[in-house]
Input
Amino acid sequence: MDAGARFIIDKLQKAGIEAAVVGGAVRDEVMNQTPKDVDIAAKAEVSSLVDVFPSARRVGRQTESLLVKACGTVYEVTPYKGDGTLKDDLAHRDFTMNAMAILIDGTIYDPFHGKFDIQSRKLACPGACSDRLEEDPLRLLRAFRFQAVYHFQFSRELASAVQKQLPWFDQVAAERVGEEWKKLLSSPYAVAALKQMAHSGVFASLLKQNKRVAFTYYEGVDPSLSLWANWPGIWWSLNCSSQETRRGLKNLARPSQEVQNTVRLIDWVLWREVNDWTAETLYQAGWSLVEAAEHWLRVRTPGAAYDHCELKYMYHKLPIQTRADLPVDGIRLMKLCNRSGGAWIEDVLRSVEKEVLNNRLQLEREAVEAFIQEEWT
Ligand code: ATP
Ligand code: MG
Output
């Protein structure tokens, strides 16, 4: 238990409130990993917690909880769920590995044998799996997310409960679904988890899509890529067009920049399947998109993709990589052409970029300004 958590639990105990570290942080400690965030559960109503930490912020997820700052870190302190005992709080958590607690004396309270399941690399629920999934259908997706993180097997009971629980999944809040997908796609065993999702027939439902898995493009998912660069593999597996992908991602409440990047990527890959890069198109797409597009080309049309080193060389050989590399900017243009700002600046800069990229114009201030004066004044 870290110093901040000890401080908070100590303070609660002094006020007569039993409390313990719970959830993912306990799992991480058992697995010798550093927790991302530490949750604390306490035997009290939120109002009593507020009495102990009057300056803490109240937040509401499913249950109300408090964000308490200690030793420079923020801890979420939540009242025990269920009948008000620690054991019952743990009984309502998603998986046995998340249903352990660290008590104030540092001992681990593990009534559902989470440690044993971690050692046997098994994902199981505290109590009846079908009840746990019914309580909160998001756990269905979380099961695959944890599989993507740890490569654990589902217990037999969990595997069969997953199949039965699908119809409920629609009722889960889009943001929570989107966040779990995000974690899944950036976890080391993402492809293994996706394969099991496809084989157990839950893949499309977990994307809230009424479709079938038509391709195995999900096998091209690479956790080291940015999230936007991984999404195509998921939607292509369902044979979604770029517009269907846009809608699907919006339905999962993904940020608009991410959606835009993904759709742009899809369009570039489809373009690239029938065209080769030119200096102009490499420049237009930009390096991260070029790199991601070639990744998917390698998956979809092996043999058509460039070797990564060669591609990098081609890109870095471009006379300019961004507009900032030009020796003139909008302000200089206004002076040069004696005009006030407007859409024409974009046209001029584009024409300069085009000439420079095609090696018809030297990347020197004098040459570029002479070109502008000749063509645009
Ligand atoms: P991460 O390492 O990604 O933070 P985590 O297990 O801590 O994983 P959180 O979403 O931070 O996941 O949730 C914290 C804890 O709250 C979990 O360990 C689990 O005990 C509990 N929890 C979260 N979501 C659910 C859920 N849908 N159903 C039941 N328990 C949940
Ligand atoms: Mg957590």
Remarks:
- The two ends are 71 Å apart (CA to CA).
